[in-house]
Amino acid sequence: MTLLTLYGTSACHLCEAALAELAPLQAGGVQVREQDITEADELMQRYQLRIPVLRREDTGAELDYPFDLNRLLDWLQDVLAEEG
C-alpha cells in the first residue's frame, strides 16, 4: 500500500484542489493522510510558504503543488508498478 501525506491547512483552497487530483489514486488503493501544518511549529516553518505539499512516506520525496494526475502518476510510477 502506498501512503502519502498531504501537508496543508484547513482554509487552503489549493489544498482542496490537490485533494481532488488525488481522488482517482485513492480509489485505486493509495492512502492519503492530511496533515494540518498549523498543529506544529516545525511543520509551519518547513511548509508555510509551500503548501500544499505531498510527501511519499516510503521515500520521503516531496511534490509541491501544482500537480495534475499525470504528474502524480509519473511521480509514483515505481511504487504503483511494484503494487500492480
TrEMBL record:
Organism listed in the record: Halopseudomonas sabulinigri
One Pfam family this sequence matches: Glrx-like
Name recorded for this polypeptide: Glutaredoxin-like domain
Listed InterPro entries: Glutaredoxin-like (IPR008554), Glutaredoxin-like_YDR286C (IPR052565), Thioredoxin-like_sf (IPR036249)
